[in-house]
From TrEMBL:
Pfam families: M20_dimer, Peptidase_M20. This is N-acyl-aliphatic-L-amino acid amidohydrolase. PANTHER family: AMINOACYLASE-1 (PTHR45892). It is found in: Cytoplasm. The gene is ACY1_1. The keyword Magnesium does not apply. Its main location: cytoplasm.
Length: 357
């Protein structure tokens, strides 16, 4: 792996080690803080009188990793031995795209030696009384659009104009953006619920650059676009369409990043892993709310190589504060998460071999 970016693996041997294993994934890193905007030391894990634990990573995702470890500690103290081997894994760099973390690791013999059948990963907090369940993600694309044209005095009609070419290309992206925004407002997903952000493709113009001064027509202009492509989209076909948008206006389309997998883990009766998660939630009186993750986690690299992966953070009735100031989690929810994982992990480890990919 990458020097200075270790991957930590804690293995709990199962009673039938020939079976494929269960992986409990966490990422080590957190995003930076603007300390002046925090009411308490962001790395002090300050617990308030009401039980709120204020800390960077409290939601994203220290609570999940701690939940795994504490659950395993409780189970081992009770003498529980899982049927399948369980690996608690802590990886680097998720917050900056995972290029030196999970993305590289899944292609190594070291990862393959773990013989993973299923992975549990992070989710998000939920302001409602349910656990969010993430079974897929949108594919992140970063696109640079470059237009070139004639240069000259700002008093003339310069043809072809780099900026006009760029604007006409961007118009196509904006038209697509508006159509997806409309679809989000009126359509429903496979569970019969109104579409959510993860079900549609978002498009945002995030960078623009052209010109040196007001009275000089620039010979080059470029823009950066961030797209998150929904799992329902054929990525190859859509990529060709995006390239065509540029070709129609004489601009160049460069994919600075184009993750070419938006594979999802089906949540149906044929998915025995999902059945175990749903059963444990029902026993605990917890509602599950499935949806497509709107951003990106390390699970996308696992699904890309064909492994089923589901993301859950046991956080309900709590504002979504990942990457925000004063990120917190109440201690009662932290304990609730430990109890949830303590019940779920042995159940996942007991899934029959018929579920193995």
């Amino acid at each position: 792996m990458v020097a200075g970016k270790p991957i930590c693996i804690l293995t709990w041997a199962g009673s039938e080690p020939a079976l494929k294993s269960v992986m409990l994934n966490s990422h080590i890193d957190v995003v930076p803080v603007s300390e002046s905007n925090w009411d308490h030391d962001p790395f002090g894990a300050v617990k308030l009188p009401n039980g709120d634990i204020v800390a960077r990573g409290a939601q994203d995702m220290k609570c999940v990793g701690i939940g795994y470890l504490e659950a395993i500690r409780v189970l081992k103290a009770k003498g529980v031995v899982p049927k399948r081997t369980v690996h608690a894994v802590f990886v680097p760099d998720e917050e900056i795209g995972g290029a030196d973390g999970m993305e590289k690791w899944v292609e190594t013999d070291d990862f393959r030696s773990l013989n993973v059948a299923f992975a549990l990963d992070e989710g998000l907090s939920n302001e409602e009384n349910a656990y969010k369940v993430y079974y897929g993600e949108r594919a992140p694309w970063w696109i640079k659009i470059t237009a070139k044209g004639g240069a000259g005095h700002g008093s003339k009609f310069i043809e072809p104009s780099a900026t006009e070419r760029l604007v006409r290309t961007l118009d196509k992206f904006v038209a697509f953006r508006n159509s997806e925004k409309q679809r989000l407002a009126v359509c429903r997903n496979e569970f019969g619920r109104p579409l959510r952000l993860g079900d549609v493709t978002t498009t945002n113009i995030t960078l623009m650059n052209a010109g040196v001064q007001f009275n000089v027509v620039p010979e080059e202009a470029w823009a950066g676009v961030d797209m998150r492509v929904a799992p329902s989209v054929n990525l190859t076909t859509f990529r060709e369409q995006v390239v065509q948008w540029g070709a129609e206006e004489g601009t160049t389309i460069e994919f600075v990043q184009a993750f070419m997998s938006n594979a999802a883990t089906p949540l149906n009766d044929g998915n025995l892993w999902w059945q175990k998660i749903r059963s444990v939630a029902e026993q605990r009186g917890v509602e599950l709310d499935p949806e497509i993750f709107p951003a990106a986690t390390d699970s996308r690299f696992l699904r890309k190589i064909g492994l089923p992966a589901i993301g859950i953070s046991c956080i309900r009735n709590t504002p979504v504060l990942l990457h925000d100031h004063n990120e917190y989690l109440n201690e009662k929810l932290l304990i609730e998460g430990v109890e949830f994982y303590a019940q779920l992990i042995p159940e996942l480890a007991s899934v029959p071999a018929t579920a193995d990919a």
